[in-house]
Structure formats: C-alpha cells, structure tokens
Design a protein that fits this description.
With about 375 residues, the chain is α+β, with helices and mostly antiparallel strands. The protein is built from 13 helices and 14 strands.
Length: about 375
C-alpha cells in the first residue's frame, strides 16, 4: 500500500497552518518546505525522526537530546490497558514523567517511583467531568513548556506523588490502627462506648463487656470466656450401630484391641483461680480489680517508696491516673467517674477501677517494673479469661 507523506505545520501564536504534500520524507525535501517558516528561537520536540534533527541543526535551532516527558496518545476510549506500553517506552527512553491520554482523559505518571501502574500515577484528569479552571491548572502544572524546561513540572509531579503516596499509606494503615485500638482495649474508646450505652438504656456496661463486644463485632474473634465455654454443647459419644445377627454370634473384641490402653476418662475443666502469685505464694482475689488492689497494697507494704514512684510515671492512661494520693486526681478529664470508679488502698493512696482485664494486666506489669520484679516470673497475675 503506497503511503503519501503530508507535512502539516502550525504557528501557535497566529494559528496559521501550512499543509504540503511531499514527494518523500528525506531531510532535504522536508527542510526545503519547513525552513522558510521556522524562526531561530524555535525548540525541536520530535519523536526521534532523524530528518528533523538535520533540519534543526541547519537552522541553528536548539535540540533537546534528552526528553523530559513522554506523551502516549490513544483514540478516545482506547487508553485502558495501555499503561504497559507507556511504561516500556518511558523505560527505554528514560523519561522522568509519562502521560497517557485519549484526549478526554489524561493520566500523569512517574515511572521511576515504586508500585504498580496505579500507584505510580500522580493525577488522573477527565477534562469533560472536571471544571475548566481545574483542567487548566493541572495541564499547566505538568505540561507548561517553561515549567517542563525548568524542571518545575517534574518537581510539582513528585510533590503531588508524595502526597498521594502518603494518603495511600495512611488509608492502608487505618484498618491496622483500628484493629490495634480494639485489641489493646483502648480506655478512651471503651469509655466512649460505655457512656453512649448508658445514655441509651440507663445502665453503664463494664469495660470488659464493651471490649468483648468490640472484639466480637469488629475483629470477629472474641476472647473466650468461662461463660462462653460453659454455654457450648458437650460432645456426645457416638451411638454404637445396631448389632446384626452375625455380630451377635461373633466376638466383637479382636485380639489386637486387647493390647490397647483404654481411653482416659474426660475430666471437667477446672476454672482458673483469680488472684496473683508473688515468688511462688498465691494470693487469691475476688475479681480482677480486687487482684490489682492487692498487688498495690502488697508492693506498697514491701517498699514505702513504691506508690510515689509509680504515681510519678509519666504515662498512665489517656484520661486517668492509675494511682494517686487523692481520688480527685485519678480522673482529671472525667471527675464524674471518681465516686463510682475509685478505691482507697490500705496506705491511704487511691486507685482507679474503671479498667478492663487487659488494662489491669498492663497496670500490674507497670507495677512490676517499678518494683523491679519480673512480670510473669516473679509475679504472675491470674485475671481470668
């Protein structure tokens, strides 16, 4: 099939257009037609055809030998899936910015960054859907000749990429952060939920109830409790099959079965004792709060400076202190909790009690650090499941 070369030249300043049918695509043929209408301050932006480089050199026109941006143009609606070809071109040419467009939709990429095609996209612009002002601002930000030539366009794209990447990382971390807050039984979250329940029904649930509900509904794996184990159905022994006439006549016990030990009888699981062990001596407690109270009482009795040193720790709870000289100092942001959720120790110090078992375990571990005890070895807490 014969191809006829056609040269189309347009002056952007005056919109004047020249269209010429050429006998060939040789540099001399193109130059004879193009050179008379070119000014010396022109800039050659070519797809690499050698004829234009020869013409530019003849006229003394600046030639940018190292491209800065690459634009892949597709027909309208044909740009989907063209990223692979775009990135291959960009890789071989070595451009820092690549643009894929079908005229309506413009996708700006930084091929040298990390991630898949979508993650390396800086911006996606649909000139039909977006308002004119935004279209002009984005196209000039990334494609204005002076900005591209000075490197400002690349810097702007890199800055936008960092912002997009930052947002993407934050969105990816949100589920993990939410799961950790629930798993750690964050006191502030438990308190917010408990307060809202109280406002709805008039009764305030304990922190353990709120924590169990959140883990069950949000994480899907609640901590097993004695109540949940007790409510599970007991496994029944399989019903032996009906004996046939032949089985009644033949012995059912084979000689090899006589060598096997009988299965051990099932023993009911004993509930775990509540309390704590210190250097091998067990101290029973009525519940988790009572266990914490006994730990504080015993450690203060062993060391008169313990309470002062523990209270001086810079970090207690977000909205409360775990130990204080006065009850009013426990809930500095929620004084309404002082009357119901504080207890006085034997030494006269006060402890806060609006805690889940998870938080109580954390407080006891902090107390061990202050008392220079190894938590889990010197002092072992049994708070129930």
């Amino acid at each position: 099939m014969e191809q006829i070369p056609v040269l189309v030249a347009r002056d952007r300043s005056s919109s004047a257009t020249m269209t010429v049918v050429l006998p060939s695509r040789k540099a001399k043929v193109i130059g004879d037609r193009l050179l008379p209408v070119l000014s010396t301050d022109s800039l050659l932006c070519s797809d690499g055809a050698s004829a234009y480089r020869i013409i530019a050199k003849t006229k003394g026109i600046e030639v940018k030998s190292k491209p800065i941006a690459f634009i892949e143009v597709k027909q309208i609606g044909q740009s989907d899936g063209a990223e692979r070809q775009l990135f291959e071109y960009a890789f071989h040419i070595g451009v820092p910015m690549a643009i894929l467009t079908d005229g309506q939709e413009w996708n700006f990429f930084l091929p040298g960054e990390q991630g898949d095609y979508g993650e390396r996209r800086v911006y996606k612009l649909d000139i039909v859907e977006r308002d004119v002002g935004e279209c002009v601002e984005r196209l000039e930000r990334y494609l204005l000749h002076s900005a591209v030539a000075s490197g400002a366009a690349i810097q702007a794209a890199q800055e936008d990429y960092r912002n997009v990447s930052k947002d993407r990382q934050m969105l990816a971390a949100l589920p993990k952060a939410w799961s950790q807050i629930i798993a750690d039984e964050d006191e502030m979250l438990l308190e917010i939920v408990a307060d809202r329940v109280e406002s709805l029904c008039g009764f305030k649930p304990a922190p353990d109830m709120v924590a169990g509900f959140l883990k069950k509904t949000m994480l899907g794996h609640p901590e097993p409790t004695a109540l949940s184990r007790a409510s599970q159905p007991t496994a029944r022994a399989p019903t032996p099959p009906m004996a046939t006439k032949q089985s009644q006549l033949e012995p059912t016990t084979h000689p090899q079965n006589l060598l096997k030990s009988p299965a051990p009888p099932r023993v009911a699981e004993m509930p775990q004792r509540m309390g704590f062990s210190l250097n091998g001596q067990f101290h029973p407690g009525r519940n988790a709060i009572d266990t914490l109270k006994q730990v504080f009482n015993l450690l203060i009795q062993r060391d008169a400076t313990f309470a002062e040193r523990f209270a001086g720790l810079p970090k207690h709870g977000r909205t409360r202190r775990y130990l204080a000289r006065a009850a009013d100092d426990l809930y500095y942001e929620r004084p309404d909790l002082v009357g119901e959720y504080s207890e006085k120790l034997d030494s006269g110090w006060w402890m806060s009690t609006n805690h889940s078992k998870h938080t109580i375990g954390t407080i006891i571990a902090m107390a061990c650090d202050v008392a220079q005890l190894a938590y889990g070895r010197d002092l072992v807490a049994h708070l129930g499941e």
